[in-house]
Amino acid sequence: MKVNIIAHTNGKGHWTVEERMVQITKLGIGYSSLTYYPEDPFHGELRAYFEPSGFTPGSWNVPGHGLIYTDRLWLKEFKAGLREAGFSIRAVQNVSYNKQGGQGMQGRDYVSMDIGPTFYASWKRLQKKIEQESVDNTFLVNA
Predict the structure, then answer these.
(1) In a 3-state reduction of DSSP, which class is residue 108?
(2) From CA 124, how far away is CA 108, in angstroms rounded?
């Protein structure tokens, strides 16, 4: 899902001292429990993607800047951006940093967060709305 979310780090997380603006351009569902346990309630991974060079405004370079993971300001601003993107309040409350520590904290070009069924329901509603708007816009162009 394409987004434009701006969130800043304050350098007070466990893994970085970098104070920097980070632009999130895409959200994706990484791990999904539905793949292995389709009858159980959803739990999974939300990936917030950024440009990984570290040289342009809004980018973040993991080897040079460290991990965004655990930076509270970034998570607070990221959640505000999710609300602006159309996610419900309850869905945003269902987002947290991955609690497993070493695994899944952050990739080279994304931050990993845990999500539950409330977020996933909002995700599906928003995806459906985006798809419908795309179809509607296609009909307007062709009319």
Answers:
(1) coil
(2) 26
DSSP state of 4: E
pTM greater than 0.85: yes
- Amino acid letter at 42? F
By residue range, what is the domain housing residue 137? 2-142
Residue-wise DSSP of 91-102: HHHTEEE-TTTT
How many domains would you assign to the chain? Answer: 1
Phi, psi of 7 (to 5 degrees): -140, 140
Environment class of 73 (CB within 10 Å of its CB; exposed 0-12, middle 13-18, buried 19+): middle
Q: Phi and psi (nearest 5°) for 33? A: -65, -25
Q: What is the CA radius of gyration of the chain?
A: 16
Whether residue 141 has pLDDT greater than 80 = no
